[in-house]
What does this fold into?
Amino acid sequence: MIGDVLVLLKNRLNSHFRTMVSGTSGYGEEKVFFIDSEVKTDQPPFKLDTVSILLFNVEQEKAFRQGEPYVRLSSDGVSKKVQPDIALNLYILVSVRFKVYEQGLHYLSLVIKYFQGHNCLDHENTPELSDEIDHLIIELFSMTVTQQNELWGSLRTGYLPSVAYKVKAVIFQTEDTIQQISTSESSSSGRLL
It folds into this structure.
């Protein structure tokens, strides 16, 4: 599901770029890619003349809690015991690496404008959103200079113009009931170990 979210964002940005720069020569092809994970360590993983998306952190959203995390109503109205849902926040970095520096900054501005105007993706405004995901909230995530330095150091490359976003909340649900576990617990609860 995490991969689906990143592919969705990549495709939405590519579509936005085609709309914004239509009629300009050389801008019809895709500009947004994932980083190249098969490059040698002495080469940057960011392709030239592209916008790159990178997942750099996954965090559990603790504020999103259900009243009874182990109980869920099924579609037929029956209460079932299940493993609790896990809500995750994805931290993504969108960076630009262009031979012409100003062109990279132009694309970075287009990314910021897009997510400013489309900060909530749901099934109404994003029909290609996976059925497993109800909606996504995309917030600008400001990093300190120290955090940026650590991130770019871990990527083993020099700083590139970039912007970070927090994508919340991707919810992992399980439909597997834990009725068997609770039944076995009750039968063994009278035994001494």
